[in-house]
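Q: Here's a chain of 343 amino acids. Please give me its 3D structure as tokens.
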Amino acid sequence: MPKLFSVRKDGTGQLIDSYNRVVRDLRISITDRCNFRCSYCMPEEGMKWLDRPELLSFEEIERVVRVLVERYDFESVRLTGGEPTVRAQLPLLIEKLARLKRPSGTPLDISLTTNGATLRLLASDLKNAGLSRINISLDTLRRDRFIELTKRDQISNVVSGIHSAVEAGLQPVKINTVVMSGVNDDEVVDIVRFGREVGAIPRFIEFMPLDGDNSWSPAKVVPANEIVERITDIFPAKLVSSGSDPAKRYIFDDQMGEFGVIASVTMPFCDACDRLRLTADGKLRNCLFAVEEQDIKTTLRNSGSDDDLAKVIEGSAKRKWAGHSIGNVNFIRPKRSMSQIGG
């Protein structure tokens, strides 16, 4: 078994899991609340929201990230929810994180995943605070279908938010689309065309078993290769290297942008996974589908030292498994829905 972390010549450590993967990306859920009710993320009714004291404060989040950056040279942080823009003073948190520097002096890469409903009001402030790039969820371009999927009549605000993000200079702006068979799979080409027009990058995500109403089945998954085929029949494109990015990237032959496909079900990328997750209530998860968590909030609030925090972090990395096993008989569905884990 490898060492839990290795030290490079410059003195910075790298966090290494039991399968020799370097862990260097953190997803942070800053709230479990959301102003939408997308079925693949959360149930329409019956959610019990966390009380404010249960949430990690901005200072607590900053401290965890600082330890990860200073001790293990983490490269990137993505803020998620629920819906992160419903958390008050979001630009303040981004400012705090933007002040952190990696041991080399390189700035931390800070990104955000949002449903975009209020982004038209926030895009410039987020950019000025230090946000680098942004992912905006958009599963349909049809108003009637949008209302059906989200239970909210907000598509015009989301589209406006995408335009605002592009105008604010957030680069890249990505559009996240969860593709569901018989629901919105007839729109993949339309969403690509929209992305090309506005200067955003569409990313199509296979439907995963983290839905709020437990209705997921393999039959509802549109395989990535089918999505790619539909798109490239209209807009020819070539696969390019994507590194540790979970999305397979395709550059259009006419050089007018690109699109990505995340095949988390049919072609899992677990062998290249480089991330940990921090939930809004202060639990570390080493996989989106993890069935156990490590409590870091108690350490934070019981006057734990940075060394104590590091032990929790290293313990989480040590337990990181080989893969999620979706489709196998030994797959165990997490008890939390996507909104409670963070996308």
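Q: Can you summarize the key feature?
A: The longest strand covers residues 173-179.
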